[in-house]
């Protein structure tokens, strides 16, 4: 299976680069095929079983995994944005999630879910635009001093996480920030 056939996830365009889907020779428990990649994270479900490294991204993309196993993948929105039900469904049932310290949050903008681009680099955080900082302050009900303090402490992979989201409509970059 070539990477060219890799499914297209509107809200998580490169889950391999973000570290949430990875190469594997394991057979997918939904389609029973070893397709070369598996979702590295557990699915969201009520049971105790761990579904990590058992579901191929193709079965996430077409919704088979969600319906066959009764699970979701990426789901909680961190903002009070009106987002169409179809977008929320695509996010929760057909999009690979990611892992953060306090439980994954997905951001929205322009009445749509944003696409997840992974952990921010130090430059992306230190050079965040005024619009990005303003959006963060509004979402978190915090002032700019709080942002500056968090941003100055940020080192990728350490105990503060900056997760990057891009609006599919206006291009605004937003960060979801959390800490260990
Ligand atoms: Zn599969
Ligand atoms: Zn936007």
UniProtKB/TrEMBL annotation:
Domain of life from the UniProt record? Bacteria
Q: Which Pfam families match?
A: UPF0167 (PF03691)
Q: Which InterPro entries match?
A: UPF0167 (IPR005363)
- Family classification: Belongs to the UPF0167 family.
Return the protein name: CbrC family protein
**Which species does this protein come from?**
Stenotrophomonas lactitubi
